Amino acid sequence: MIRKGFIFDLDGVIVDTAKYHFLAWKKLANSIGVDFTEVQNERLKGISRVKSLEKILAWGNKEISETQFSQLMALKNEDYLNYIEHMDASEILPDVPRVLNFLKTQNQPIALGSASKNARTILEQVNLKSHFDSIVDGNDVSKAKPDPEVFLIAAQLLNIAPENCIVFEDSVAGVEAANVAKMISIGIGDASILGHADYVFKDFTQISNQFINNLINR
Ligand code: B16
Ligand code: MG
Fold first, then answer.
1. Shortest-distance Cα residue to atom 3 of ligand 1
2. Which domain holds residue 159?
3. What tens digit of pLDDT does each residue of 185-195 get?
């Protein structure tokens, strides 16, 4: 049997948590007199929490103390977790369960590779945690995407060579990380943004079982 490693990003691939990040960041930015738009939110996709706050402060020309930085980080996450608490399986993006179940029937190892420190909580909320053989998230890495660390650790845990791994990613930084790791990158989203991926699909409804089979056997 041929075994490949299938690595999934979380936000924007399995669930759309970007809308909750947006609400929490907007509330926080406005509370310190800084504007925050949906366009800016797009630019935070796949970016770590620390880097996100640094960017928001830079866009707003705002300088704060280290203590206030930590306080704001904690506040943002508290607010974000209030949204996560209400998530359920209905928020899983279309056809993700079909692809995960198909991989299972083909005995293919599956991992999560996310920048989020809340990834495990979110997978539990939407009842998908048991589908993953390994989970690597923001708590397990020291270098954020586009550094390939998160995906290389996932490959190691699955015991599959990086060149035999396939990554599903919605962010520019994530696709870059997969490419640097020498993995097959599959962009989920807009081809004009994710043109550096090996393949791009609008969403999982466009990815057939036949395509997955071809990935397994290539
Ligand atoms: P947290 P992913 C990323 O998730 C999000 O896209 C990004 O917007 C967020 O800042 C980052 O996780 C950290 O999330 O605050 O929960 O640790 O796309 O890598 O699954
Ligand atoms: Mg993502």
1. 46
2. 5-16+89-217
3. 999 999 999 99
